[in-house]
Amino acid sequence: MRYIVIGTSGAGKSTFAAALAESSKCPYIELDQHYWGADWQAVPPAQFEGAVREAIAGDCWVADGNYSAVRELLWSSATHIVWLNYGQGTIFRRLLWRTLTRGLLRTKLSHGNRESLRMAFFSRHSILLWAWTTFGKNREKFSRLRVDPQYAHLQWCEFRTPRQARRFLAALAEHSASSD
């Protein structure tokens, strides 16, 4: 199985993908870790694509993210798409909590980056503003991609609530435990 977990910023893609990878006994590929360098600077496109190409070389993996720069590479190799298609309120509450927690605790992310409360609340580059303004566009984009004949080989799992996603993971973990 080769899964890609998609959804609007703050939906919980990384958390879900890490749990899915663990249950599936597959490597977890956090696309943000390959895309961002130090000081929140994007790595050169060729470097990003090369890192992703290397990461998906195996028969089993779980990746998370919505990077159009590597969509063709990822989606043509994947077997499943998991769409965390939660409501805007759910996503915004999750993102607000994550942003506050990371900002207050000064949580180190990949390459030593940290989320900034100043940036989150007082910048036009705010992740909160980004998630709010791209929510509808992302839903439309993913709906179009779902019916795109180019990706007809993909099996889609769409979850409209966190509860549905948790049930899926629990069932997968139960199945995995019983097959050991």
TrEMBL record:
Cytoplasm among keywords: no
Molecular function via GO: kinase activity
Keywords annotated in UniProt: Kinase, Transferase
Highest taxon, organism lineage: Bacteria
InterPro entries per the UniProt record, alphabetical: Cytidylate_Kinase-2 (IPR052922), P-loop_NTPase (IPR027417)
Keyword hit for Nucleotide-binding: no
PANTHER family xrefs: TOXIN (PTHR37816:SF1), YALI0E33011P (PTHR37816)
Protein's name according to its UniProt entry: Adenylate kinase family enzyme
Source species of the chain: Herbaspirillum frisingense
